Amino acid sequence: MEATKIALQNRLQLLSIILAWFALVIAVLSLTGWFFQIESLRSSFGAAGTMKVNTALCILGCSLSIISLRLKRTGITRLLAILVFLICQISILEYFLNQNLGIDQLFYTDVVTDPTLEPPGRMSLLSACNIYIITLALVAFTYQRYGLAQLLVAFFFILTYASFLGHLYGITQFYQFGRFSTIAGHTALALLLLNLSILLYCSESGWMKIFSSPYMGGKLARTSFGYFLLTVPILMGFYLYGLNQWNFTPTSSLVSSFLVICLITLPIAHIFLNRLDKLDAILQKTNSNLKQTNADLAVRNQELTNINQSLDDIVYMASHDLKGPINNLEAIFRELNVLIKSQLPPEDQQLIFFGANSVNNLKKTIQDLTQIIQSQQIDTQEPERIQLVPLLTEIQDELQSEINESAATFYLNLQTEYVFFSRIHLRSIFSNLISNALKYRSPERAPEINISAEPVPGGVQLRIADNGLGLTEVQQAKLFTLFKRFHNHVAGSGIGLYLIKRTIENYGGQIAVTSTINTGTAFTIFLPQQT
């Protein structure tokens, strides 16, 4: 659906550029009429007014500005818009000050217009105001500000549409708004195209956002807009034709126009109501299927929970039942070691050692399984505000003997003083990672442990890095797997990092590792924070 939406927005933007090109052509034709003295191009259709040179130049500048915006040339867009803005600003001031400020015939001397009727070369007030708003909208678009600009342009779109219909049906009141405010037919058409071009260009934003929606609301908006553009001239045309050609009374002509509009509206309404009905049926069916799927999923989840609980119970029972025999075996080997070890040859003594060691490993495995089961049953705790420095100092004090033995050095770079997290879990994470950094140190150098914390979007990032033995890429890929160990010269169970990863992910966080053999290892942790 996202691809459909983007394709629709691209089509609307392309239509916007086409409309801008049409407005540009109208402006060029008008300029041609002035420079080559072609009356039909100056006045086009309609009985009143001509497109002044300044008006044509401003429409030309706005059209090029829209095209530049499409080409991502925002600098050119702003420059053209500002130049046109200045021309319109001075023209509007001339109306309010009732003075000639020299802009009317700056680019061309108008000897055609009767100065007793209107100032030669001066664009109409409506044209100047409309183009003024268009230039502001173009500049706003370059700064991604759409809402108010679209609203103002939509207002002038309605005015220019009314002016265009006035010329189309000869209704003077629609295109003549007082003295010096007559707007020519092709000027109204060009401004209408420019306004529509502006509205469609960024239809995915602002007030026009619904217009580019691929959903039913967007389809209804586009159809309603087309219906408005179509039915208004039909209604007006039929009404005027009934009055002038068929000699209808105003009431009869109005009723006839209403019936024609009904004949147009009813099929369109029928089509849309059918679509809405089908969509509603599909929605109801989809909701029903979704409810059934959710119910099935809940049953499956409950079954899975029961199975997992049963497996945990089996493992727990097995480990619990094995504790007694294993403790007995451990005691037997201990007694054998005391009573008869000295009476056996070395090779037989080795057998007792292997047996005792195997029992000890089995005991540790059962303890690890019990710890894993307990960790799965522990829910996340309510986060609290934890000061990092006191917590790290507490962990260093706990590991002081290992730190002294290895001559380890700690470096802190804390850009945030605290984090929101479960204290017991954060302490476990830091303690485990720092302990590992001390255990798996390089024999060639004293350990250096760098601990940093910095705020990032949505949370805080912690980093614990050392200069220890390091890991290969293959080892890194399996590092958080249960019971995986890569350095056998140090005692361990292979579940610490597994439990750390599980704990962090239970709180919505992430942990990642980067490492280089004989250089060191770095753990990066993201913890979401309260906002």
UniProtKB/TrEMBL annotation:
<keyword id="KW-0472">Membrane</keyword>
<protein>
    <recommendedName>
        <fullName>histidine kinase</fullName>
        <ecNumber>2.7.13.3</ecNumber>
    </recommendedName>
</protein>
<keyword id="KW-0812">Transmembrane</keyword>
<dbReference type="InterPro" id="IPR004358">
    <property type="entry name" value="Sig_transdc_His_kin-like_C"/>
</dbReference>
<keyword id="KW-0808">Transferase</keyword>
<dbReference type="InterPro" id="IPR052162">
    <property type="entry name" value="Sensor_kinase/Photoreceptor"/>
</dbReference>
<feature type="transmembrane region" description="Helical">
    <location>
        <begin position="12"/>
        <end position="36"/>
    </location>
</feature>
<keyword id="KW-0597">Phosphoprotein</keyword>
<dbReference type="InterPro" id="IPR036890">
    <property type="entry name" value="HATPase_C_sf"/>
</dbReference>
<feature type="transmembrane region" description="Helical">
    <location>
        <begin position="183"/>
        <end position="203"/>
    </location>
</feature>
<dbReference type="Pfam" id="PF02518">
    <property type="entry name" value="HATPase_c"/>
</dbReference>
<feature type="transmembrane region" description="Helical">
    <location>
        <begin position="254"/>
        <end position="273"/>
    </location>
</feature>
<dbReference type="InterPro" id="IPR003594">
    <property type="entry name" value="HATPase_dom"/>
</dbReference>
<dbReference type="InterPro" id="IPR036097">
    <property type="entry name" value="HisK_dim/P_sf"/>
</dbReference>
<feature type="transmembrane region" description="Helical">
    <location>
        <begin position="79"/>
        <end position="97"/>
    </location>
</feature>
<feature type="transmembrane region" description="Helical">
    <location>
        <begin position="148"/>
        <end position="171"/>
    </location>
</feature>
<dbReference type="GO" id="GO:0000155">
    <property type="term" value="F:phosphorelay sensor kinase activity"/>
</dbReference>
<feature type="domain" description="Histidine kinase">
    <location>
        <begin position="317"/>
        <end position="531"/>
    </location>
</feature>
<feature type="transmembrane region" description="Helical">
    <location>
        <begin position="224"/>
        <end position="242"/>
    </location>
</feature>
<feature type="transmembrane region" description="Helical">
    <location>
        <begin position="123"/>
        <end position="141"/>
    </location>
</feature>
<keyword id="KW-0418">Kinase</keyword>
<keyword id="KW-1133">Transmembrane helix</keyword>
<feature type="transmembrane region" description="Helical">
    <location>
        <begin position="48"/>
        <end position="67"/>
    </location>
</feature>
<dbReference type="InterPro" id="IPR005467">
    <property type="entry name" value="His_kinase_dom"/>
</dbReference>
